[in-house]
């Protein structure tokens, strides 16, 4: 496909997304209809679509349509009206010719200053971000419009960072250590080759964000660790690589745990899956991690659809669920144990405010540690807090 034909395809996909289809589904639908498209074309169309989702607020200056977004994307990637006009030539599979109004919007003299355009998120979330991170808000919002780096976690029980770097290189993947975690590698060349690489297939490396790795690395040592919201199990597996603890995993939606078995096997770890009732009968645990459902705002580079889909009601529901999970998990913690609360959110209302509310309502618990990971550190935005009960004196 020509670069112009890829733009036409992205317009088609974005129009389907804007009429209510999830972006991934719209991309799959397009790929099914377009058997002529090779893997490089599919990847290129995906990149255009995701860039438009990340920057939807500023790209919407020609209206919220697939064509409007893609025209602004093309303007951002080129430097002159002529270059963009050449792509929108109307010839072959290229999108139709630009009209005067579209040409005028390519390189506006004074860009729109609305919160939605500057922060590339709905206005209320831009305000939420300002309240949460103050002076860093604009830089964080801008960072969240960039494509996320690909990070790998090296399973240190399987080999060293250097072993992983060397083995990845044999499959054409270039990776370098990243400061956020001692297990973290950043893939700087050929991230799409990771999944088929020997290092990945053999369990030497796992895909995991660097801040997520750092958060797991910092968790206190325990004899019995329960990952209460385990999902795919990324955190319990990371914890298990560096600790000798007996590992347990739970999720309110057991189907979310389906990948955990094969992943644990690949990593050479044993993780016992518990139902909600079995968590109670197997308690106490000296470390319970609650990686709660959240807005995902720290990971909007990866999942930009989330910022446009989040509603006030859904956000309010998340705040309630987060408190409910802490209430459920607290009795599972041994008297001198740690209840760890984590989100991949940059919003204070999901982080510090939740911890303050829990400690306020639950006598004896206090926050003994907390750390914010800013997306400006390179990884996703995360928050972690440890809740403990001091020994009665
Ligand atoms: C942020 S995800 C966890 C991601 C996972 N820890 C990882 O590292 O891949 C949150 C998980 O919490 C689960 N969840 C939602 N409500 C819950 C509840 N009341 N109790 C336990 N888990 C819950 C969801 O099903 C979801 O899998």
TrEMBL record:
Entry keyword annotation includes Heme: no
Q: Which residues form the active site?
A: 344 (nucleophile)
* Keyword RNA-binding on entry: yes
What Gene3D superfamilies does the entry give?
Answer: Sun protein, domain 3, Vaccinia Virus protein VP39
Recorded GO molecular functions are:
RNA binding; RNA methyltransferase activity
Which controlled-vocabulary keywords does the entry list?
A: Methyltransferase, RNA-binding, S-adenosyl-L-methionine, Transferase
Identify the Pfam families for this entry: Methyltr_RsmB-F, RsmF-B_ferredox
Q: Provide the GO biological process annotations.
A: RNA methylation
Residue sites binding S-adenosyl-L-methionine per the record:
251, 291
Report domain SAM-dependent MTase RsmB/NOP-type positions: 140-393
Family membership, please give it: Belongs to the class I-like SAM-binding methyltransferase superfamily. RsmB/NOP family.
Q: Which PANTHER family match?
A: NOP2 YEAST -RELATED NOL1/NOP2/FMU SUN DOMAIN-CONTAINING (PTHR22807), RIBOSOMAL RNA SMALL SUBUNIT METHYLTRANSFERASE B-RELATED (PTHR22807:SF53)
What is the name of the protein in this document?
16S rRNA (Cytosine967-C5)-methyltransferase
Please name the source species: Litoreibacter halocynthiae
Q: What's the source species' lineage?
A: Bacteria, Pseudomonadati, Pseudomonadota, Alphaproteobacteria, Rhodobacterales
């Amino acid at each position: 496909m020509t670069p112009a034909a890829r733009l036409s395809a992205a317009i088609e996909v974005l129009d389907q997304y804007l009429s209510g289809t999830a972006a991934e589904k719209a991309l799959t639908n397009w790929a099914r209809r377009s058997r002529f498209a090779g893997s490089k074309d599919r990847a290129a169309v995906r990149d255009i679509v995701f860039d438009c989702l990340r920057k939807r607020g500023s790209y919407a200056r020609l209206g919220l349509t697939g064509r409007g977004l893609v025209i602004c994307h093309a303007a951002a990637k080129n430097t002159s009206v002529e270059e963009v006009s050449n792509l929108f030539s109307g010839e072959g599979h290229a999108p139709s010719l630009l009209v005067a109004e579209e040409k005028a919007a390519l390189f506006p003299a004074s860009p729109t200053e609305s919160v939605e355009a500057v922060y590339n998120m709905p206005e209320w979330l831009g305000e939420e971000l300002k309240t949460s991170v103050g002076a860093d808000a604009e830089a964080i919002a801008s960072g969240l419009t960039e494509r996320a780096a690909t990070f790998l976690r090296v399973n240190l029980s399987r080999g060293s960072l250097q072993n992983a770097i060397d083995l990845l290189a044999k499959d054409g993947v270039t990776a370098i250590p990243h400061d956020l975690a001692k297990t973290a590698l950043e893939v700087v060349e050929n991230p799409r080759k990771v999944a088929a690489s020997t290092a990945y297939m053999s369990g030497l490396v796992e895909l995991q964000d660097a801040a997520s790795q750092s958060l797991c690395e910092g968790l206190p040592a325990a004899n019995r660790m329960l990952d209460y919201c385990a999902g795919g199990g990324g955190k319990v597996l990371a914890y298990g690589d560096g600790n000798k603890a007996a590992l347990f995993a739970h999720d309110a939606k057991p189907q979310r745990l389906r990948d955990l078995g094969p992943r644990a096997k690949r990593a050479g770890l044993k993780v016992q899956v518990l139902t909600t009732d079995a968590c109670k009968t197997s308690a106490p645990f000296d470390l319970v991690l609650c990686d709660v459902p959240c807005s995902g705002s720290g990971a909007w580079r990866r999942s930009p659809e989330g910022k446009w889909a989040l509603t006030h009601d859904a956000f309010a529901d998340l705040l309630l669920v987060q408190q409910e999970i802490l209430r459920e998990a607290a009795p599972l913690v041994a008297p001198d144990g740690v209840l760890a609360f984590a989100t991949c959110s940059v919003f204070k209302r999901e982080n510090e405010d939740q911890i303050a509310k829990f400690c306020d309502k639950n006598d004896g618990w206090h926050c003994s540690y907390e750390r914010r990971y800013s997306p400006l550190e390179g990884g996703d935005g995360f928050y972690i807090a440890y809740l403990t009960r001091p020994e009665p004196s």
